Amino acid sequence: MYRLTSIENLAIQARLNFILGAREYDRFFIGFECGHIRGKTAHVFARSEHNADQIGSRYSTHVAIAIESIIKRPIKEVHVLPKHFSNSQPEI
Fold it and tell me: Does a structural domain hold residue 90?
């Protein structure tokens, strides 16, 4: 599992802002954060369930491209969850 640094997160956010434009970025990506990469899957967090749904259904390819361009690793899948799941620990 690869955890992104705060600098990498900022770079991904900047790349998404560039790709989507400020207006679209501000609609859905304020509060967006990449959690970690497991294999070729990125686990990312949005500020609300609505935003997570919108990002997952409309922008997952854009997110994958932005992450790939920063960390230089292939991303084939993006899981988007609301931010309140970011502190949850998986049950074993």
Answer: no
